[in-house]
Amino acid sequence: MKKVQILLVVILQALLLPLFAQPPKLKFNNNRFKIVQFTDIHWNSDSKYKVKNDSTEMMMRQVIKTEKPDLVIITGDISVSKGAKAGWEQVTRPMTDLKVPFAVTFGNHDTESDMPKREVLKYLQKNPHNVTQDSGNGIDGIGNSSLAVKSSESDKDSWLIYLFDSHAYTNDSTMGHYDWIKKTQIDWYVDQSNKFAKKNREVLPALAFFHIPLPEYEYVRNQKNTLGNHSEEVCSPRINSGLFWAFLQQKDVMATFVGHDHNDDFIGSLANIHLAYGRKSGYVSAYKEILDRGARVIELHEKEKEVKTYIRTLKGILLECIFKK
Q: Which residues does the UniProt record annotate as the domain Calcineurin-like phosphoesterase (predicted)?
């Protein structure tokens, strides 16, 4: 009878484990921490896109195998049609198979599938490699997260990563087409930033990831020192809700990384904060697109508070940039 009870407990634990998967700890390795940013997968369940969907997964696997990241972040427009769950299964398979922690931020087209964002987040949180969290009730959006990257030498927080839900579309056409990051999210970020600073007795360097770019991206698009392709006008909200100003006030976020505009992959600087695009990763085209598919790689240096970033395609490395706090 005792053996039966033990067996039942083991079976119950196995059944419950996927419901309560503990996220992996993010940690520097020999003072280095590497992030691969994929963006705008645009997985579509229509059978005519199967080859392109498979090509996207193949490219993701190749980039991960080449770069060996400590974290993958996908910045929106991921599984965008009916049959979205199958899309999420395929898109997350490279990280699951290769055992790489991953996080996502939602894009405007993710709201057009047959799987609500809240349901997607619950699905992702059953994956033992997912680190996407949620800021909880009272905060606009789904999947707002503050992730601490631990020191290579201790359990002390070393860097921070903020994920924001940049929403989708406005309900009032007089206010533009795209929605914006809300005041509740900005207040949440400021609160998180202050708590981490108090806990660690210093302001920690940070990065921020979201899908729709801030209006400030258009300010830097044609600057002389902006690096990369900037041929597409920035499709940002008309409303500037103040997130960039909050970054300036908190003095922690060194760079932001977005997607959304498929023909932009530039990085430019405003007030010593770097504003960067990822590289369009999905082979399904939403409009005329000019860039090879790939990813942005972001490598953090713990001791120097330094960031190195570049674009990685199947052909090689492009547009390398290094900056410090």
A: 33-263
pLDDT for 266-278, tens place per residue?
Answer: 999 999 999 999 9
Q: Supply the pLDDT for residue 228.
A: 97
Whether the CA torsion 6, 8, 13, 14 is positive or negative: it is positive
What is this structure's pTM?
0.93
Q: CA 112, CA 19: separation in Å to the nearest integer?
A: 26
Q: Quick: pLDDT tens for 263-310.
A: 999 999 999 999 999 999 999 998 999 999 999 999 999 988 999 999
CATH number for position 172? 3.60.21.10
Q: How confident is the model at residue 12 (pLDDT cuts 50, 70, 90)?
A: very low
Amino acid in the structure at residue 116: P
From the centroid of its chain, how far is CA 309? Answer: 15
Q: DSSP states of 126-187 as a string?
A: TSTTB------TTSSSS--EEEEEEPSSSSSEEEEEEE-----B-S-GGG-SB----HHHHH
Residue 176 above 90 pLDDT?
no
Exposure string (b/e) for 77-94, b if CB count within 10 Å is 16 or more?
bbbbbeebbebbebbbeb
How many domains does the chain divide into?
Answer: 1
Whole-angstrom Cα distance, residue 15 to residue 12? 5
CB 79 within 8 A of CB 92: no
Q: Tell me if 12 is assigned to some domain.
A: no
- Cα–Cα nearest to 165, from 270, 75, 57, 81: 75
CA distances from 75 to 22, 30, 44 (A): 22, 27, 17
186 falls within a domain: yes
pLDDT at residue 199 greater than cutoff 80: yes
Tell me how far apart the alpha carbons of residues 171 and 176 are, in angstroms, rounded to a whole number: 9
Q: Which domain does 304 fall in, by range?
A: 23-324
Pair 237, 212: CB distance under 8 Å = yes
